[in-house]
Amino acid sequence: MQLRDIEYVLSIAEAGSFSKAAKLLYISQPALSKSILRLEDELGVKLFIRHNNKTSLTRAGELFVEDAQKVLMLSAQIKKKMEDIQQNHDGRITFGISQYNGQIYFSKILLEFKRLYSNIKINVVEDFSANLERGLLTGDLDFALFTLPISSDDLKYEHLFFEEMLLAVPPDHPFNTTVKTEPGRFASVRLSDFKNEGFILMKSRHRLRTIEDSLFKQAGFEPSIVFESRSSDTIQSFVTGGIGLGFVSAAMQRNTSAEWQSTYYHLTDVDAKREHVIAYKKNGYLSHASIAFINLAKELCEKQFNYQSDLIIR
Prior knowledge:
The chain is 44% helix and 23% strand. It has helices at 3-15, 18-25, 29-43, 59-86, 99-116, 129-138, 207-219, 232-240, 250-255, 288-304; strands at 48-51, 54-57, 92-97, 121-126, 143-147, 155-169, 187-189, 198-202, 224-229, 246-249, 263-267, 273-281.
């Protein structure tokens, strides 16, 4: 049995058919079928059942896949360790970022890292946080930058910074006339005072939606949801357009052009912040290059985000 055989089994299990897996692996279906038959003969068990053009795992196949993922992870770790030794701590790193993190702070970290470690090759994967978690678990990523919560207990993370979530209210909302604000600062309000308003929220299962749901739970009411979106930019524009209220991160507020600005408030009756972290596999191997990047990211974030969050910065 070779690592290639393990990769074949995992690809078939994930694709659900031999033909789809063959296309992903860039080999012919007969060649893939022959390799699996040879492996099954070697193991003395059947790994797959074919029925109605679909392929499913046998019980033996399920056990094989469970351990096969661990084998590939160990193989990737061994390769990384050898590269680390061979290349005298230069090497390469592959890590993930969410689109939002890429917009607000990642570029400064990357530029400084490339200045300090010019010999290290960098591969950046931009994706949704849930997909980045899967990349960490499979060993495709060395580490990733995103926000809590994390769904897997097999991941460990380092704190980067906390970011405040602001309540965004349409500029012409009657409530705004009842609040006194100091120039250049946001007023403070209670989220519970808006229980009769309509809200624009992220779609369910989105990481930010988890935080939004927590805010309503803390405030003690179920929100009236008028619209759900996958985009923070859409939510910001809809709030400004008067469709409803929403939540906007402090960084997004600062990066929003003046014409799309809403009226923003600090929230005093809930813990309105989210935590940005850098995560990696708990029992995985971190190269010297990865450790250097993580330490630099923590250092730069501590400096960059040490500001007064109630100042309006444009």
